[in-house]
Amino acid sequence: MQLTKEFRGMNDLEMKIQDLEIQVKALEKNNKMLKDHIDSLVNDNDRFRSIDKAHKNINGKLRLRLDRLEEENKKLTDEVKDNKELIQDLYDYP
Hints:
By secondary structure, this protein is an all-alpha fold. It has one helix at 5-92.
């Protein structure tokens, strides 16, 4: 049986349409996967920003504490130096 040009053309168009429909479904699925991945990345980013904010808050408090301890340490060092000189003067007193 010989196919007419018109029938072969219609058959080719139907095959092309089916191929395009398959491609569309694959692209829609890929698009959904990419959107889900983007949503996941946005959620991760939000979580990381919250963590970063908390760390900055903690680091600020630690910086204040460290500054206070360094100041206190300097005062104690000066006090020990003064006491050492006083004790030395007492021992050296005739």
